[in-house]
Structures are given as structure tokens and as C-alpha cells.
Amino acid sequence: MTTVLEACRPSWAPSLEVVPRGPKMGAGLFFVYVLFKTVVCHFLMTLLWMIGVECAQHPHGAYGVVADWVPSLGFLRDYPQFDFLTPAPFGGAAWFAIDTLGGILTLLEVILYQVGPYVLPKDLAPGKFDSTLYPPLFNDLHARESLIAFWSKGWHAIFRRNIVFCGWNPMEYLFSSFGKDAAKTAGMMGGMIFSGIFHEYLIAAVSKIDWKFPTVLMFTLCGLGMVTEVQFKRQTGLLVKGIPGRWWLVLVIGAGGKYMVDSWMARGLGRSDMPPPRLWTWPRFLVPFSGLMPERWISRIESWVP
Fold first, then answer.
1. At what angle do helices 61-69 and 27-57 cross, to 10 degrees?
2. Residues 6 or more apart from 88 whose CB is under 8 A from it?
3. How many CA atoms does the CB half-sphere of 253 hold within 13 Å?
4. CA 220 to CA 213: how far, in whole Å?
5. Close Cβ partners of 20 (under 8 Å, ≥ 6 residues apart)
6. pLDDT for 22-37, tens place per residue?
7. Which residues cross the membrane (predicted)?
8. Cα–Cα dist 251/241, whole Å
9. CA-CA distance, 221 to 203, in Å (whole number)?
């Protein structure tokens, strides 16, 4: 009986504040809306990836690129240890690449809703289309004014269930004997460390392991920053927000992101089999995600067109 009741319970879902409903539209209008958004995301991803590749391949990094455009800032080349700009285009490119992929898959699903009833058996055909079931993958990411808001309600919104289940809950349980506050703090750190582990695994799977684990350290630093925000609120009664909150967010992510992206570039990010943007050919601008592909794949795509 218990098993039956458990199966009948509503499935887990985050609050609408974290993952809001999608816009209410008909299938046709929603298709056009997603198509336009996907094209814009592809353009922004390609633009930011171009900038990231320029920074990765320049001997002086982002400061070198800036100095080439503004010669009066040439002194920046002497301070690579303070180059916190290079992670920015790569982070933005990742954001829009994921949104582009989400848009493409959503378009395919909308098509399935329209064609499915005619080509699939009745038991397998999709039901009535509801555009509100397609929330944004990143909920107002650009508007976040603290680390907690950025990670828990922005970047990690769609992955929240996995992170809570695999990272937060185990650590919260292990530290529950130390009190509620300690358990919540451990849970927060556990969620961020777990996120760092699967990001680190993703990079290592396509390159090699960096035994300093800079990606885990970056997410751990962000977790410590989130704990600091909680303590700040407890001590002062104030939330981290506004312009100071944005600066705090940029500084913490930039500080950890620099060493993480440096490690990624040392393992080939933006460099391995990747020509400089001035030598790019049409597939890198028109075909989704082709900007990320090695040159030998681009040559193959070009060979398909007479």
C-alpha cells in the first residue's frame, strides 16, 4: 500500500520562482517564437565563441586582444595574472549554446505534436500541446544580483533536482547531527561541489584530468560565497543585491573562473584543431554548434555542398 501511495504522489518540481511557466501561445506562434530565439542564441553563441577563441589563442590572452584594439592599454599585457576577462566569453558562449540546443529540441517536439497524431498509433500520439510546459532553461540569468540567486534560481534552475538529490541531500544528512544550520550549510556546499565534479568530469572526458581540479575549486569557491551571503543576511538582516551584489557576483565567479578556464585552455579549449576566427569559413557561422567543431569536421561539412 505504501508503494502505491508513493507512486500516486505528485512528481517533484521546483517552485515557479525557480522554473516559471513558459509563455502561453498556440503551437504555430510558439514555434516562430522559439525559432527566433534559437537563431538569436546561435548568433550570440557564435559571436562570444569567436571572442573566446581570440583570447585563447592570443599569447597575452584577453588583455592582449584588448591592447591590440586599444594600443594605449598595451600595459595590460604585463599583468596576465589579473586577466579575469577571458572566462567571460566562454561562459556566455556556454549559456547560449545550451539555449540553442534547447531551442532546436523544442522545435522538433513542437513538430512532433503537429505530425504525431497523423503518423503514430493512437496510444503513442502526443496529446494537446501546451506551451507553458516549456520554461526557459535559464531563468532571468542576466538579472541575478547575488551568488545564491545566480546559481539556485538561474544557472542551476533546470538541473536543480539532480543537484539537490546528488549533492545537497547527502551532505545535509551527514551533517544533520551538528544542527539545522550546519546541515543546511553543508547541503549548500554539497550541491556546489557536486556541480563542480560533473563539470570537471565533462572536461576530463574529452581531454585529460587536471589533478588540481580547478573546476571543483571554482564551484567550491562559489559555494563559500553563497554561505557568506547567508551569514551576511543573518548578521545584518540585509540581502546581497543591487549593484554591490552584481559586483560581488562578478568578482567571485571571475576569481574562480580564471583558473578554471586557464586549465581548460591548457587542455585545448579554443585551441585544439581550431583556426583563428579570421580564417573561419561559412559553416562555422551558419551551422549550429559548428563553431565548436574541429577543423576536420568543418572541412567535411563543406565537402557536402557543391
1. 90
2. 62, 254
3. 22
4. 11
5. 135, 136, 139
6. 889 999 999 999 999 9
7. 30-51
8. 14
9. 19
Under 8 Å between Cβ of 186 and 165? no
| Cβ neighbours for 296, distance < 8 A, ≥ 6 positions apart | 273
Give just the sign of the alpha carbon dihedral 260, 269, 293, 46.
positive
Q: Side chain identity at 239, as an amino acid letter? A: L
Whether the Cβ atoms of residue 12 and residue 165 lie closer than 8 Å to each other: no
Whether residue 277 contacts residue 53, with contact meaning beta carbons closer than 8 Å, is answered with yes
Quickly count: other Cβ atoms within 10 Å of residue 167's Cβ.
Answer: 24
Cα 57 to chain centroid, rounded: 23
Place of cell 514555434: 31
pLDDT digits (tens, 9 = 90+) for 98-108: 999 999 999 99
* CB contact at 8 A, 44 and 92: yes
DSSP 192: H
Distance CA 114, CA 118 (A): 8
- What's the whole-model pTM score? 0.83
Check if the beta carbon of residue 158 is closer than 8 Å to that of residue 102.
no
Taking the mean position of all CA atoms in its chain, how far away is CA 123?
36
Question: Closest by alpha carbon to 287, among 98, 45, 56?
Answer: 45
Amino acid, single-letter form, for residue 61: G
Question: Quick one: cell of 210?
Answer: 587536471
